[in-house]
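Bench notes, afternoon.
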Amino acid sequence: MIKEYKINSDQIVIKSDLVAEFPIYIYLDDSKQILLYSEKIKELLDDSRVLKPLEITNEGISFLLQSGVVPIPQTIYKNIFIVGVGDTAVIRTMNNKVDIEFSHEFPFFNKNRNNEADVDENYIIEMLAEATISRLKVNTESYLFHSAGKDSNMIALSLAEAGHQNKITCITHQSKGDTDESEISKNIASKLGFKHQILYEPNTLDKKHMDSFEYYFENIPLPCTDDATLAYSLYTSQVEFQNANIIDGSGNDIYMGHIPSNLEFDRQAKYSFFHRLRPIAGKLSSGSRFDIITKTKTEYAGMNGISYGDSQHILKDAYNVYGYWKNEDEKRHDWDYFDIRADIWGSLVEYEKVMRKAKNLANINNINLIFPFTNHKVTEYFSKLPEKYLFNRDEFKNKLIFRKILRDRISLDSDKLGKMVYSFDFYSILMKMKKEVDHEILSCKLWNKNGIEKILASLYHKIDSNHKYRLRLTYLVQRLYLISAWYNHNKYVKR
């Protein structure tokens, strides 16, 4: 339901719930006379009081290019804001205009955990089941995005122990190579009594696939640069998601300790030395290895993309995002790095990439999307548990209690299995539609024509000649495509 702040009304304070299960979206018009807010972004954008088409900002495009996300509370749109995890918006009237003051406070510092608390495995199972089942719409199909991972299997186990397995279908993406999880997922689903369906990457792309992409870009409320974005559009040709329930295991990294890789931890510790190279790295072409080692500590939490040097060539008045992230580092100069990563990843990257792609799918297909791990009761419970139940700093191992429960109850040994990564082959997909990809990028009026032609040609040359970094470089082409196609087709965008 949309609410309105009336000019000259008393001050109001808007906060998200504990982990922003339902973030608040705000619209403030240019005159600063109309302020609307809602938990549903599409409801807000479709409201007649929201002046459309919406103006986008160069700063927002610059963040999407260079970092892959626009830092909350800002969005790509000049007039749309987000109140997310740990965020507060104070709204008041000043000089006969609406004023908004945003602030952010990370709610899950590891030092604040209750070290005397004990864990109750049965309660965890019951709590997750309740958080999921209570949100299911009746008399409609229900699906669980399922993998070999700990999060989705904890949800599957909780639903099975609640006797709900015959009402839900587990769906799994089939990847190529050693990281394919589909058979493991199929076996687990069978053991627990679920129906199971495998989603395939198509060998060829036909008109229905291209139509699904265009429909996606036309209707999504906010752009998303996640590397599996296109996969979610392709799924719609294999499963009828319209009006369905979809259960997703994302959303818990922010309070369970989002563990960096050993290599990442070593790199960020040396940032005081490598940051001197950042001015040089920013001028280099996209895909440079200097870009990795000169990131700020906050950028290590999933930030990557087109270099500032290349951004200048393709985008008029491109904004250098380095200054913003350096300032975010300084705000957290005395933080434990595990807290930094949990805050930046959990309140920004996970929400605006990992979860945004699922939310976009839900928004355009009228899906009832459920994130059990963002439930208030679930969040509160895990955020208070001692580290020893959640992560091991020395071994860079996370979700320890989940590992134990799954090993004991369904013989899923995550330690033996190793890290299984959701792997969508966006390289082969992009190459199958290279003509369409190039057209969307080169025809996009966001970009300087000469600059984008040179940058795109350079990326393709590097992809063809550097197989070791082929996927990383292809990801940059996909980044350009996702932004361009969204801008070219989206019904909310002012062009």
